[in-house]
Amino acid sequence: MQQTIGRFAPTPSGGLHLGSLCAAVASFLNSRAQGGLWKVRIDDIDKAREVPGSGKSILYVLDALGMEWDGPVVYQSQQISSYASVIDSLIERQLLYPCTCTRKKIGGRPYPGNCSRLEGLSFANTQLRLRLEESRISFNDAYLGRIEGDLKKDSGDFIVKRADGVFSYDISTVIDDELMGITEIIRGADLARLTLRQVYLQNLLSFKDINYGHIPLVCDANGKKLSKQGGATAITIDSAQKTMVKALLHLGLNPKPEMMREASSVLLTWALTQWQIVNSKRQN
Ligand SMILES: [Zn+2]
């Protein structure tokens, strides 16, 4: 049987918070419960959004929580040549075209394909869009069931490289997941719809299929998703153990009161046995 390889891939735009920790813990437990590997990647491709030092502090907190990862940490900023060669192959297959439309012009609607038939536009310093051939896509999610969509109606031909040269989240994540041999992705439910584009790209590039599971989001008192942008509290070494308890509770694992003060690594060992039970119920 194929070995399970999971991953956690935070963006270094701030510290780890309860919401991102839940995704990390769920993917960690999911891989380890199957005797698999768990890898960490720092998605630092968009340098404009990076908060200096936050990649390092995320790794520091994971380490302090006893969440050991396998192999070296992968940094997307060091993978640019892989993305560029995939983009070149898509250009060669005539699947990309330059687009000069502004975001304002499109106004949040699915892209109607204005530039798809224009000739003579430069591929350099222009955003590149993927020419969708078919657009109905679906996958089975371990938590949400079957997810279906029509990419033409969802987004239209979507951007894979921005005018400033930054590769899109979809294309970079799909390439790295393939290169890292990832077999299972467990992450927050806000990324479930985006997965449709990623499945489309995987098919297009003949990459291996990945099993997905999108866990319920952690929300604040107003029902909004906890996020760095929304000012979610970053986990510090002092708050790490307490936040681990909260994360386990959010994931439906209920440590007994006498366990609540245990070290995070002890809690994780306990959680691993519980995860197998929860997981087997989910699959049956
Ligand atoms: Zn356009």
Explain what this protein looks like in three dimensions.
It is a single chain. The chain is α/β, with parallel strands linked by helices. The protein has a domain of 142 residues: Rossmann fold (3-Layer(aba) Sandwich). The chain is built from nine helices and ten strands. The protein has a three-stranded parallel β-sheet, with helices on one face. A three-stranded antiparallel β-sheet has the order 4-5-8. A two-stranded antiparallel sheet has the order 6-7. The longest helix is centred in the C-terminal third of the chain and has 20 residues. The structure holds zinc ion (ZN). The site of zinc ion has 5 residues, from loops. Zinc ion (ZN) binds next to loops.
Spell the H/E element sequence. EHEHEHEHEEEHEHEHEHH
What would you call the structural class?
A: alpha/beta
* Percent of residues in β-strands: 15-25%
The dominant shape is elongated
CATH classification class of the domain at 1-75 and 218-284: Alpha Beta
Largest sheet: 3 strands, parallel
Q: Which CATH architecture of the domain at 1-75 and 218-284?
A: 3-Layer(aba) Sandwich
List unreliable stretches of 5+ residues.
none
On the 0-100 scale, what is the average pLDDT? 92
> Which kinds of small molecule does this entry bind, naming each only once?
zinc ion
Question: What's the total number of strands?
Answer: 10
Radius of gyration of CA atoms, rounded to a whole number = 20 Å
What is the CATH topology assignment of the domain at 1-75 and 218-284? Rossmann fold
What is the helix fraction of residues, given as a range? 25-40%
CATH superfamily of the domain at 1-75 and 218-284: HUPs
Q: End-to-end span in angstroms?
A: 20 Å
- Helix count equals 9
